[in-house]
Amino acid sequence: MATGGTGTSDPFDAGAGGILRQPKAVWATAGASVVAFMGIGLVDPILPSIAQGLRATPSQVSLLFTSYFLITAIAMLVTGFVSSRVGGRKTLLLGLALVVVFAGLAGTSDTVGQLVGYRAGWGLGNALFVSTALAVIVGAAAGGSAAAILLYESALGLGMACGPLLGALLGDASWRYPFFGTAFLMAVGFLCIAVFLKEQPRPARKTSLLDPLKALGHGGLASAAVSAFFYNYTFFTVLAFTPFVLNMTPYKSGAVFFAWGVLLAVFSVLVAPRLQERFGSLKVLGGSLVLLAADVLALGLGDHTTAVVCTILSGAFIGVNNTVYTELALGVSDAPRPVASAGYNFVRWFAAAAAPYLAPKIEEWTDLRMPFVVAAVTAVLGALVVVVRRRALTHRAEELEPRHASEDGVAVFAN
């Protein structure tokens, strides 16, 4: 978020406003967030193994993502309602407890139906935790919202990178072990939150179940949510369907998605802010979505080597998009951040639920290339929304348009 002035644009500056100088409560929440995000990509390398172990089809196994994100989307209407009444700390602990229970149960599944059901319960816990974690980090982090968002995106990127790696390492022995491993790590996160995080101040006004939907009445927030909906369809086509296309061992698939996650983390935390500072958020977002569309199209139409390269490369564009979309959701409207985030996530997670289900179905109806053609089209649609609705998305022009500093030519990140 660039504004004129003097200072440094390095968010990792060790000074008082740097991302690395944070209270223990922030680090505990961020650490637990890493594990929470690991749960999203954890099953990637073991999807074929799960299908084989439970004698299920790819479309049935893909329901692991669909049930998870469908419940996550619906739960977004509940998270603010709960946290504004019991407090952020108790909401985080409740979410973590649910993940521990349902991740552990997932490892005991005997049928794909049981596994899908347990993943739905896991999604409820993850929704309560992840949405509240962002609000807690933003509220408690040193250095303002810019440092907080980058810290959150760092946790997201690290979790996305480590999830497939953990899934591959544990899943090589049995597809059940990654679920037990996640339950254990989330239990550690539960203890860290319980010890280091004090109860957060509750909002003066309790959030109703309808507040996130009312927040979507703001044209800018609604536009960001719709654009993110199309983008998320592309994102989760790559995440949930590509493992079947690559058809690699858990170790090799885990290595591919680990490299993908590393690029996601680097571009979300280090590259995206610098691109925004130079070109402005909307130009960066539109350009990144178009490049993602081209990459996904090449992934689907190319040979196996091209598919591997394009899968990894997509992490770069996804990392940039994640950072810009998060900032848009938190800053484009006048709604309280938790409410705006809940409304935005309510819309976009429906695409994360739809893509894993529809991509295998589209392949069954047509051929292996068509799911990626559709995903490329949805990325372009996301970019078109940004272009057509650019006026509504520039509510905070100082965040979304590049501005140069005065005499020293330096730009800084501001709240």
UniProtKB/TrEMBL annotation:
Query: What domain of life does the UniProt record list for this protein's source?
Result: Bacteria
Mainly localized where? membrane
Name any one GO molecular function: transmembrane transporter activity
Q: Which UniProt keywords apply?
A: Membrane, Transmembrane, Transmembrane helix
Q: Where is the Major facilitator superfamily (MFS) profile domain?
A: 25-394
Q: Which GO terms describe its cellular component?
A: plasma membrane
**Pfam families given in the database record:** MFS_1
Claim: Metal-binding is one of the keywords in the record: no
Q: Where found? A: Cell membrane
How would you describe this protein's topology in the membrane?
Multi-pass membrane protein
Q: Which InterPro entries match?
A: MFS (IPR011701), MFS_dom (IPR020846), MFS_trans_sf (IPR036259), Tet-R_TetA/multi-R_MdtG-like (IPR001958), YfmO-like (IPR053200)
Q: What is this protein called?
A: MFS transporter
